[in-house]
Automatic annotation (TrEMBL), chain A:
InterPro entries: ABC_transp_permease (IPR001851), BCAA_transport_permease (IPR052157). It comes from Azonexus fungiphilus. CDD domains: TM_PBP1_LivH_like. Belongs to the binding-protein-dependent transport system permease family. LivHM subfamily. The keyword Methyltransferase does not apply. GO terms for cellular component: plasma membrane. This is Amino acid/amide ABC transporter membrane protein 1 (HAAT family). The lineage of its organism: Bacteria, Pseudomonadati, Pseudomonadota, Betaproteobacteria, Rhodocyclales.
Automatic annotation (TrEMBL), chain B:
This is Amino acid/amide ABC transporter substrate-binding protein (HAAT family). The keyword Transport does not apply. Keywords: Signal. PANTHER family: BLR6548 PROTEIN (PTHR47235). InterPro entries: Leu-bd, Peripla_BP_I. CDD domains: PBP1_ABC_ligand_binding-like. Belongs to the leucine-binding protein family. It comes from the Bacteria. It comes from Azonexus fungiphilus. Residues 36-396 form the Leucine-binding protein domain. The lineage of its organism: Bacteria, Pseudomonadati, Pseudomonadota, Betaproteobacteria, Rhodocyclales.
Length: 304, 439
């Protein structure tokens, strides 16, 4: 039973890491109704900016500030040069633009900062908490707990921002209908620039946590793969949904990885491990059949 | 107009003749499907940088191989199988007259090319990767899994562990943690054979691609309490494993990885978590290898270095690229001994050369490549030619060799290749060559 809880808690904490990436997707989707294919690349760009600037001699705090400036400039640039031309176009056009953006970032970022995998030391060692290890013989990582705290703060701030600020309400209006939002005087361009800037900040936080955990390298773009089932489960438009979805995906994939393969091996022989690559997608697919809008997503009803 | 034009053309021709650095009797062309961008670009930059630097070095230092200039063309594969095939198709036309061995540095691309290259009679070199039953050259005449294979490497790692344990592994437990792909699965058969022979318990734990999340696997390892973890990772999976091992308190000096997990790119991102970790290799790192130091002097001194970042010179993968080029150039020398000095080799001739290599320790010393390669002697029924690796350990700043050459259990492993090759021949309707008649 001890082992079960160890896996469960480890999974929940991993899920928080997925949710950090998923948050960026949610922000863009809420503001423009488009799935931002470039979110994984933005995570890579943000983390690479930090280590790249540190290699030029800057301390961590300065590198983080400058990386935030880069991400903000990137957000404004994206609005000005990519999205502005696509106002009121079908969502698929915006989606295609984000695919282009992905390749642009994946090419540009290593050109500026180099492509070698590098370590990012943010001062938190990824080691078990000795007290929990000694008393309950369970490995709970200090790093993962801090990441969970960071995610909780981010979610709270973003949820309050969307719910209670004018910009937050304007964001939701823009997501519903670009043209209608424009017609009542909502400054669409400003809204998009702000939201891409905030998504850049979320990418920076996610990039730093993932980069500190596994090193800063191209594979950070793959973190997006972990965020997709989280979004399907939590809903594309819900900030708290990203967290809840992350927790469910994280816990279920870890438990599945541990407990399903032995059963399958007993039944069919062979080796059935390594299922956490596809298991979350199957779970999300099953969930789609029951609740297509996700746990916290907005139910979309069209008048016939 | 004519009056002006003629002297101008003549002057240009004279100038070109004057600035041409050297003249060559002929060219030996290398088609290079390489990767320098994308997820594994950093690995490719170092490897192909070393490879091309050595070709340049031979051109500059020795005026080519017996006067034959080494030329090449790269094509970016991004480590993508489809692009690898596209590159091969694009480059093969240029390799009709003369063809160096094709190094794809990718098991997936090698698998995709293995039939095509045999049809086109272009030799495919798979140093330490690729289809391993191609060791049996009677079925795979144009494929060369040179130096070592995944299976022989796994067997050598087990031998290393066995030696550390007084020659006895009975009752020990070894976890085989692997990338859940063809690459990771290749060595399972060898690990199972070794487990059965040496009576240790083998626990197999796969990791789904890309391997950037391994919490569950390492909690399982913690529960299993193994004596060693043999590790077959790739890319981000390597750093993640080292960090996760630190998290669950598994000692890194009980983790031994394959050569895909043993470069600077694999350990530096893991920081202190990598200290003490060991991995197999067939080439040492560092600039103390004479040919590496000389390349820096000659090639970079002439401003012809392939790398923008000179910091990569002497890294494990750079030196491995040089080792691949040394082997390829030695094959050209061998081929020229048979087919005529100063003449480029076509694909069929290069195939013969690769199948009749005999690179001794003395020869390696002569070319300044001691410790870049083990001794290699290939034949029709042994396209591997060595099967030896060294074990190196990361001390936190550099890789340090901690063993001499260790050969895998050939008597145990090679019959597995022959059985697999036989099956392949049956499936494809191939009549194997009679190796006793090949010379």
């Amino acid at each position: 039973m001890e082992f079960f809880f160890e896996v469960l808690i480890g999974g929940l904490l991993s899920g928080v890491m997925y949710a950090l990436v998923a948050l960026g997707f949610v922000l863009i989707y809420k503001a423009s109704g488009v799935f931002n294919f470039a979110q994984g690349a933005m995570v890579y760009l943000a983390a690479l900016s930090v280590v790249g600037i540190m290699e030029w001699g800057a301390p961590l705090w300065l590198a983080v500030i400058l990386a935030f400036a880069i991400m903000t400039a990137f957000g404004i640039g994206t609005e000005k040069f990519v999205l502005r031309k696509l106002v009121n176009q079908p969502p698929i056009a915006l989606f295609m633009a984000t695919i282009g953006l992905t390749f642009f970032i994946e090419g540009l970022a290593p050109m500026i900062f180099g492509s070698d995998p590098r370590a990012l030391d943010i001062g938190i060692v990824d080691e078990p908490i000795p007290y929990i290890l000694d008393n309950w013989n369970m490995v709970i990582s200090k790093f993962d707990l801090i990441a969970a705290g960071v995610a909780a703060v981010l979610v709270t701030v973003l949820a309050l921002f969307f719910q209670y600020t004018r910009i937050g309400r304007a964001l939701r209006a823009v997501a519903d209908d670009h043209q209608a939002a424009l017609s009542i005087g909502i400054p669409l361009q400003h809204i998009w620039a702000i939201v891409w800037g905030v998504a850049g900040f979320v990418a920076l936080v996610a990039g730093m946590m993932w980069g500190a955990r596994n090193g800063v390298q191209f594979a950070l773009t793959f973190t997006a793969l972990k965020a997709l089932p989280v979004l399907i489960l939590g809903g594309f438009t819900s900030v708290p949904g990203a967290i809840v979805g992350g927790l469910i995906i994280g816990a279920s994939e870890k438990l599945a990885e541990i407990y399903i393969p032995p059963v399958m091996q007993d039944l069919f022989g062979g080796n059935f491990g390594g299922i956490e690559g596809w298991f979350p997608y199957v779970l999300a697919l099953l969930f789609l059949l029951v609740r297509p809008e996700g746990l916290f997503g907005e139910k979309h009803i069209d008048r016939v | 107009m004519k009056k002006v034009f003629k002297p101008a053309v003549a002057a240009a021709a004279v100038s070109l003749a004057l600035i041409a650095p050297q003249t060559f009797a002929a060219d030996q062309f290398f088609p290079i499907p390489s990767y320098r961008v994308g997820a594994y670009g950093a690995n490719g930059q170092a490897f192909y940088g070393g490879f091309i630097d050595y070709l340049n070095y031979v051109n500059l230092k020795e005026k080519g191989v017996n006067g034959v200039n080494l030329t090449w063309e790269e094509c970016e594969t991004e480590y993508n199988n489809a692009k690898g095939v596209e590159c091969y198709e694009r480059l093969k036309g240029k390799a009709k007259e003369s063809a160096g061995p094709i190094h794809t540095m990718s098991t997936g691309i090698s698998y995709a090319l293995i039939d095509k290259s045999a049809q086109d009679k272009l030799p495919l070199a798979m140093m330490g990767y690729g289809r391993t039953d191609a060791v049996d050259g009677s079925v795979f005449p144009y494929a060369f899994p040179l130096v070592t294979t995944y299976q022989m490497q796994a067997s050598a790692i087990v031998k290393f562990i066995k030696d550390k344990n007084g020659g006895n592994l009975a009752g020990k437990k070894i976890v085989y943690l692997y990338h859940d792909s063809a690459y990771g699965k290749e060595a399972i058969i060898a690990m199972e054979a070794e487990a059965s022979l040496n009576k240790f318990t083998l626990v197999q734990i796969p990791v789904a691609h890309p391997g950037n999340e391994q919490n569950a696997q390492w909690l399982k390892i913690r529960q299993e309490k193994p004596d060693y973890v043999v590790f077959w990772g790739w890319g981000v999976m390597n750093q993640t494993a080292l960090k996760a091992a630190q998290k669950v308190g598994f000692p890194r000096d009980k983790m031994i990885g394959s050569w895909w997990t043993g470069s600077e790119e694999d350990v530096i991102p893991a920081g202190d978590a990598a200290k003490g970790y060991m991995a197999a290799t067939w080439n040492v790192a560092g600039k103390q290898v004479p040919v590496i130091a000389d390349i820096e002097k000659v090639v970079y001194g002439a401003g012809k270095g392939n790398l923008q970042d000179k910091g990569k010179i002497g890294t494990v993968l750079y030196n491995r690229g040089v080792s691949a080029a040394v082997l390829s150039v030695e094959a050209i020398r061998k081929g020229q001994e048979k087919y005529g000095k100063g003449k480029p080799l076509n694909g069929e001739q290069m195939r013969w050369a690769l199948e009749n290599l005999n690179i001794t320790e003395a020869r390696l010393k002569q070319v300044g490549a001691t410790d870049l390669l083990p001794e290699i002697k290939t034949s029709c029924d042994n396209h591997e030619g060595s099967g030896k690796v060294k074990i190196q350990q990361w001390d936190g700043a550099k890789w340090v060799p901690v063993s001499g050459w260790i050969e895998g259990n050939k008597a145990l492993i090679h019959p597995l290749f022959q059985a697999s090759a036989k099956q392949y021949a049956k499936e494809k309707g191939i009549t194997p060559r009679d190796c006793s008649k090949e010379k």
